[in-house]
């Protein structure tokens, strides 16, 4: 790893991409409704959530994830293809963690695939951004 190869503006954009993907992924048009049902949450409960806490920590964790992925990709050979591949592989890794936790929480496979799928897609896009914007 060569820290001088980390493009910090790309890290920020990669982190922001997780918000864009999440906004689409968890919208009622895609997986929002089944995710809410499997989470046993209502619209009222979600609306009562502390938005500053939720979005603030989500931004922090997305930034940590993007910076961590950028550190792994901080090599001269990194390009968009390798970035997307590394992001996909990181997504598979996190999918496994999500599945393990969810199984112990007695969640169903639909819930696991919704959350794990988001992780795979968002990390693949993060990696592509980081690989492209060298």
Automatic annotation (TrEMBL):
Entry keywords, A to Z: Membrane, Transmembrane, Transmembrane helix
Residues that span the membrane, as ranges: 6-33, 54-74, 80-99, 111-133
Protein known as: DUF1761 domain-containing protein
Organism whose genome encodes this protein: Mucilaginibacter rigui
